[in-house]
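Suppose you are handed only two things: the residues of a chain and a line of SMILES describing 2-oxoglutaric acid. What would the bound structure be? This form records exactly that question and the answer produced for it, so the two can be stored side by side and reused later without any lookup.

QUESTION INPUTS
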Amino acid sequence: MSEILTPEQAAFYNDQGYLVLENRIPVSVIEDIRAEIARFEDEARGMTASNDRLDLEDSHTPDAPRIRRIKLPHTTSDIMRDLMMSDHVLAPVRDLIGPDLRLHTSKLNMKSAGYGAAVEWHQDFAFYPHTNDDVLAVAVIIDDMGLENGPLMVFPGTHKGPIFDHHSDGVFIGAMDLDACGLDLKDAVPLVGPAGSISIHHARIVHGSALNTSARDRRLLFYETMAADAFPVMGSMTKFATIAEYDARMLCGCPTIAPRLADVPVRIPQPQPESEYGSIYEIQKRLKKRGFSTYDGKAG
Ligand SMILES: O=C(O)CCC(=O)C(=O)O
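ANSWER OUTPUT
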Protein backbone atom coordinates (compact mmCIF):
# COMPACT_ATOMS: atom_id res chain seq x y z
CA MET A 1 0.00 0.00 0.00
CA SER A 2 1.45 3.31 -1.07
CA GLU A 3 1.48 6.24 1.38
CA ILE A 4 1.86 9.14 -1.01
CA LEU A 5 3.41 8.13 -4.33
CA THR A 6 1.22 7.23 -7.29
CA PRO A 7 2.03 3.98 -9.12
CA GLU A 8 3.28 6.17 -12.00
CA GLN A 9 5.73 8.00 -9.72
CA ALA A 10 7.06 4.75 -8.25
CA ALA A 11 7.39 3.26 -11.76
CA PHE A 12 9.20 6.41 -12.94
CA TYR A 13 11.71 6.10 -10.08
CA ASN A 14 12.28 2.41 -10.77
CA ASP A 15 12.77 3.06 -14.48
CA GLN A 16 14.72 6.35 -14.43
CA GLY A 17 16.41 6.24 -11.01
CA TYR A 18 15.16 9.60 -9.75
CA LEU A 19 12.03 11.56 -8.86
CA VAL A 20 11.20 15.20 -8.08
CA LEU A 21 8.27 15.98 -5.76
CA GLU A 22 7.42 19.67 -5.86
CA ASN A 23 6.45 21.67 -2.76
CA ARG A 24 6.71 18.71 -0.39
CA ILE A 25 8.11 20.52 2.69
CA PRO A 26 6.16 23.32 4.45
CA VAL A 27 7.52 26.82 3.81
CA SER A 28 7.82 27.42 7.58
CA VAL A 29 10.24 24.48 7.90
CA ILE A 30 12.37 25.77 5.03
CA GLU A 31 12.48 29.20 6.68
CA ASP A 32 13.54 27.63 9.98
CA ILE A 33 16.33 25.75 8.20
CA ARG A 34 17.57 28.96 6.59
CA ALA A 35 17.75 30.52 10.07
CA GLU A 36 19.72 27.49 11.30
CA ILE A 37 22.16 27.91 8.41
CA ALA A 38 22.78 31.51 9.50
CA ARG A 39 23.73 30.14 12.92
CA PHE A 40 26.31 27.80 11.32
CA GLU A 41 27.66 30.73 9.28
CA ASP A 42 28.31 32.60 12.53
CA GLU A 43 30.13 29.52 13.85
CA ALA A 44 32.40 29.51 10.76
CA ARG A 45 33.57 33.05 11.46
CA GLY A 46 37.09 32.85 12.85
CA MET A 47 37.64 29.26 11.77
CA THR A 48 40.87 28.58 9.92
CA ALA A 49 40.22 25.00 8.78
CA SER A 50 37.38 22.53 8.28
CA ASN A 51 36.38 20.43 11.27
CA ASP A 52 33.98 17.58 11.94
CA ARG A 53 30.95 19.92 11.78
CA LEU A 54 31.77 22.27 8.92
CA ASP A 55 33.55 21.79 5.61
CA LEU A 56 34.94 25.12 4.38
CA GLU A 57 35.34 26.39 0.81
CA ASP A 58 38.89 26.75 -0.51
CA SER A 59 38.25 30.51 -0.67
CA HIS A 60 37.13 30.70 3.00
CA THR A 61 38.93 33.11 5.30
CA PRO A 62 38.25 33.60 9.04
CA ASP A 63 36.75 37.06 8.48
CA ALA A 64 34.88 36.14 5.25
CA PRO A 65 33.45 32.74 6.19
CA ARG A 66 32.42 30.38 3.43
CA ILE A 67 30.91 27.03 4.27
CA ARG A 68 30.85 24.34 1.61
CA ARG A 69 29.01 21.72 3.65
CA ILE A 70 27.35 21.39 7.05
CA LYS A 71 28.18 17.83 8.10
CA LEU A 72 25.64 15.55 9.79
CA PRO A 73 23.17 18.40 10.42
CA HIS A 74 20.68 16.00 12.02
CA THR A 75 23.11 15.75 14.95
CA THR A 76 23.49 19.50 15.45
CA SER A 77 20.07 20.89 14.48
CA ASP A 78 16.78 19.76 16.02
CA ILE A 79 14.89 21.22 13.06
CA MET A 80 16.87 19.16 10.57
CA ARG A 81 16.56 16.07 12.76
CA ASP A 82 12.78 16.50 13.08
CA LEU A 83 12.45 16.94 9.32
CA MET A 84 14.48 13.76 8.75
CA MET A 85 12.12 11.79 10.99
CA SER A 86 8.96 13.28 9.49
CA ASP A 87 6.61 11.80 6.93
CA HIS A 88 7.50 14.66 4.62
CA VAL A 89 10.78 12.83 4.05
CA LEU A 90 10.11 9.24 5.07
CA ALA A 91 6.74 8.55 3.42
CA PRO A 92 8.02 8.66 -0.19
CA VAL A 93 11.10 6.66 0.83
CA ARG A 94 8.94 3.94 2.40
CA ASP A 95 6.91 3.84 -0.80
CA LEU A 96 10.09 3.17 -2.79
CA ILE A 97 12.20 0.86 -0.60
CA GLY A 98 9.92 -0.39 2.14
CA PRO A 99 8.93 0.28 5.74
CA ASP A 100 12.22 -0.50 7.50
CA LEU A 101 14.79 2.24 6.98
CA ARG A 102 18.20 3.19 8.31
CA LEU A 103 20.05 6.47 7.93
CA HIS A 104 23.29 6.34 6.01
CA THR A 105 24.23 9.99 6.51
CA SER A 106 23.00 13.57 6.32
CA LYS A 107 24.69 16.67 4.91
CA LEU A 108 23.78 20.15 3.78
CA ASN A 109 25.66 21.17 0.65
CA MET A 110 25.75 24.95 0.55
CA LYS A 111 26.80 25.92 -3.00
CA SER A 112 26.58 29.63 -2.20
CA ALA A 113 25.94 32.37 -4.77
CA GLY A 114 28.98 33.30 -6.81
CA TYR A 115 31.40 30.58 -5.73
CA GLY A 116 29.70 27.38 -4.43
CA ALA A 117 31.85 24.38 -5.31
CA ALA A 118 31.06 21.82 -8.00
CA VAL A 119 30.61 18.13 -7.20
CA GLU A 120 32.19 15.89 -9.82
CA TRP A 121 30.23 13.06 -11.45
CA HIS A 122 29.95 10.00 -9.25
CA GLN A 123 27.70 7.23 -7.98
CA ASP A 124 26.96 7.11 -4.24
CA PHE A 125 27.11 3.30 -4.37
CA ALA A 126 30.77 3.62 -5.37
CA PHE A 127 31.37 5.18 -1.92
CA TYR A 128 29.16 2.81 0.01
CA PRO A 129 28.39 -0.50 -1.68
CA HIS A 130 25.74 -2.54 0.15
CA THR A 131 24.41 -6.07 -0.10
CA ASN A 132 21.43 -4.74 -2.06
CA ASP A 133 20.75 -1.44 -3.76
CA ASP A 134 17.64 -0.28 -1.93
CA VAL A 135 19.74 2.72 -1.05
CA LEU A 136 18.82 6.28 -2.01
CA ALA A 137 19.27 9.97 -1.25
CA VAL A 138 16.52 12.49 -0.54
CA ALA A 139 17.54 16.07 -1.30
CA VAL A 140 15.49 18.90 0.22
CA ILE A 141 15.67 22.03 -1.92
CA ILE A 142 16.27 25.00 0.40
CA ASP A 143 16.55 27.70 -2.30
CA ASP A 144 14.67 27.75 -5.59
CA MET A 145 16.71 25.49 -7.87
CA GLY A 146 17.11 26.54 -11.49
CA LEU A 147 19.51 25.80 -14.30
CA GLU A 148 21.74 28.73 -13.33
CA ASN A 149 22.56 27.95 -9.68
CA GLY A 150 24.24 24.57 -9.96
CA PRO A 151 21.37 22.05 -9.81
CA LEU A 152 21.95 18.41 -9.07
CA MET A 153 22.09 16.60 -12.43
CA VAL A 154 21.55 12.90 -13.08
CA PHE A 155 21.98 10.48 -15.96
CA PRO A 156 18.59 8.73 -16.11
CA GLY A 157 18.74 4.95 -16.19
CA THR A 158 22.37 4.63 -15.10
CA HIS A 159 21.17 3.09 -11.81
CA LYS A 160 20.66 -0.09 -13.84
CA GLY A 161 24.20 -0.13 -15.21
CA PRO A 162 27.67 -0.80 -13.86
CA ILE A 163 29.48 0.91 -11.03
CA PHE A 164 32.08 2.93 -12.91
CA ASP A 165 35.74 3.38 -12.09
CA HIS A 166 36.13 6.00 -9.33
CA HIS A 167 39.87 5.40 -8.82
CA SER A 168 42.93 7.30 -10.02
CA ASP A 169 46.50 6.09 -9.65
CA GLY A 170 45.21 3.15 -7.66
CA VAL A 171 43.43 5.29 -5.03
CA PHE A 172 39.69 5.85 -4.57
CA ILE A 173 38.91 9.45 -5.54
CA GLY A 174 35.09 9.35 -5.61
CA ALA A 175 34.82 10.82 -9.10
CA MET A 176 34.56 9.48 -12.63
CA ASP A 177 35.59 10.62 -16.07
CA LEU A 178 32.37 10.84 -18.13
CA ASP A 179 34.09 10.32 -21.49
CA ALA A 180 35.95 7.25 -20.28
CA CYS A 181 32.62 5.86 -19.03
CA GLY A 182 30.88 6.46 -22.37
CA LEU A 183 28.43 9.07 -21.01
CA ASP A 184 27.50 12.25 -22.86
CA LEU A 185 26.73 15.43 -20.91
CA LYS A 186 23.77 16.18 -23.18
CA ASP A 187 21.94 13.21 -21.63
CA ALA A 188 22.11 14.62 -18.08
CA VAL A 189 18.86 15.91 -16.56
CA PRO A 190 18.81 18.79 -13.99
CA LEU A 191 16.62 18.25 -10.93
CA VAL A 192 15.04 21.68 -10.53
CA GLY A 193 12.10 22.98 -8.52
CA PRO A 194 10.97 25.60 -6.04
CA ALA A 195 12.27 25.72 -2.47
CA GLY A 196 10.48 23.07 -0.40
CA SER A 197 10.55 20.50 -3.19
CA ILE A 198 12.50 17.27 -2.79
CA SER A 199 14.38 15.13 -5.24
CA ILE A 200 15.16 11.47 -4.69
CA HIS A 201 17.97 9.67 -6.46
CA HIS A 202 19.03 6.03 -6.50
CA ALA A 203 22.47 5.29 -5.02
CA ARG A 204 23.67 3.83 -8.32
CA ILE A 205 22.63 6.73 -10.56
CA VAL A 206 25.47 8.86 -12.00
CA HIS A 207 25.10 12.44 -10.74
CA GLY A 208 27.02 15.66 -10.13
CA SER A 209 26.59 19.44 -10.14
CA ALA A 210 28.39 22.50 -11.46
CA LEU A 211 29.94 25.48 -9.67
CA ASN A 212 27.33 28.08 -8.71
CA THR A 213 28.37 31.26 -10.52
CA SER A 214 24.88 32.78 -10.31
CA ALA A 215 23.77 35.46 -7.86
CA ARG A 216 21.49 32.99 -6.04
CA ASP A 217 22.36 30.51 -3.30
CA ARG A 218 21.68 26.84 -3.93
CA ARG A 219 21.48 24.96 -0.68
CA LEU A 220 20.49 21.31 -0.69
CA LEU A 221 19.91 19.17 2.40
CA PHE A 222 20.56 15.46 1.90
CA TYR A 223 19.22 12.54 3.89
CA GLU A 224 20.74 9.32 2.57
CA THR A 225 18.90 6.17 3.59
CA MET A 226 18.80 2.46 2.97
CA ALA A 227 16.52 -0.50 3.55
CA ALA A 228 17.26 -2.02 6.98
CA ASP A 229 18.40 -5.24 5.31
CA ALA A 230 21.04 -3.51 3.16
CA PHE A 231 24.38 -4.06 4.92
CA PRO A 232 27.61 -2.35 3.89
CA VAL A 233 30.13 -4.46 2.01
CA MET A 234 33.64 -4.58 3.45
CA GLY A 235 35.59 -1.42 2.62
CA SER A 236 32.40 0.67 2.24
CA MET A 237 32.60 4.21 3.58
CA THR A 238 29.64 3.46 5.86
CA LYS A 239 31.16 3.56 9.33
CA PHE A 240 29.73 1.49 12.17
CA ALA A 241 31.53 -0.69 14.67
CA THR A 242 28.79 -2.75 16.31
CA ILE A 243 25.31 -3.95 15.43
CA ALA A 244 23.95 -1.73 18.21
CA GLU A 245 25.49 1.24 16.45
CA TYR A 246 23.98 0.13 13.14
CA ASP A 247 20.57 -0.33 14.73
CA ALA A 248 20.81 3.14 16.24
CA ARG A 249 20.52 4.34 12.64
CA MET A 250 16.95 3.09 12.32
CA LEU A 251 14.62 5.82 11.07
CA CYS A 252 11.46 3.72 11.09
CA GLY A 253 10.30 0.10 11.09
CA CYS A 254 12.29 -2.86 12.40
CA PRO A 255 16.01 -3.66 12.26
CA THR A 256 17.26 -7.07 11.14
CA ILE A 257 20.45 -9.08 11.33
CA ALA A 258 19.67 -10.88 8.05
CA PRO A 259 21.19 -8.97 5.13
CA ARG A 260 19.34 -9.34 1.83
CA LEU A 261 21.83 -10.35 -0.85
CA ALA A 262 21.03 -9.05 -4.32
CA ASP A 263 22.84 -9.34 -7.61
CA VAL A 264 24.31 -5.82 -7.61
CA PRO A 265 27.57 -4.54 -9.11
CA VAL A 266 30.17 -3.64 -6.48
CA ARG A 267 33.62 -2.07 -6.53
CA ILE A 268 35.39 -1.56 -3.25
CA PRO A 269 36.25 2.12 -2.54
CA GLN A 270 39.69 1.28 -1.26
CA PRO A 271 42.41 2.23 -0.71
CA GLN A 272 41.22 5.57 0.59
CA PRO A 273 43.26 8.73 0.02
CA GLU A 274 44.95 10.27 3.06
CA SER A 275 42.94 13.31 4.14
CA GLU A 276 41.91 14.65 7.52
CA TYR A 277 38.19 15.50 7.48
CA GLY A 278 38.39 14.43 3.83
CA SER A 279 35.17 15.30 2.11
CA ILE A 280 34.05 14.44 -1.40
CA TYR A 281 35.30 17.89 -2.47
CA GLU A 282 38.83 17.15 -1.30
CA ILE A 283 39.21 13.62 -2.63
CA GLN A 284 37.69 14.52 -6.02
CA LYS A 285 40.50 17.04 -6.58
CA ARG A 286 42.63 14.09 -7.63
CA LEU A 287 40.49 13.60 -10.76
CA LYS A 288 42.79 14.32 -13.70
CA LYS A 289 40.08 15.36 -16.17
CA ARG A 290 37.59 17.52 -14.26
CA GLY A 291 34.03 17.51 -15.56
CA PHE A 292 33.19 20.92 -14.07
CA SER A 293 35.15 24.14 -13.85
CA THR A 294 36.40 25.15 -10.42
CA TYR A 295 36.44 28.41 -8.48
CA ASP A 296 39.26 30.63 -9.71
CA GLY A 297 40.14 32.05 -6.30
CA LYS A 298 38.82 35.57 -6.92
CA ALA A 299 36.54 36.99 -4.23
CA GLY A 300 32.93 36.26 -5.20
O1 LIG B 1 25.34 19.03 -3.82
C1 LIG B 1 25.29 18.47 -4.90
O2 LIG B 1 24.88 19.04 -5.91
C2 LIG B 1 25.72 17.05 -5.10
C3 LIG B 1 26.01 16.36 -3.84
C4 LIG B 1 26.44 14.95 -3.94
O3 LIG B 1 26.18 14.27 -4.89
C5 LIG B 1 27.19 14.41 -2.82
O4 LIG B 1 27.51 15.18 -1.89
O5 LIG B 1 27.46 13.19 -2.83
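WHAT STANDS OUT: The mean pLDDT is 93. The CA atoms of residues 9 and 59 lie 41 Å apart.
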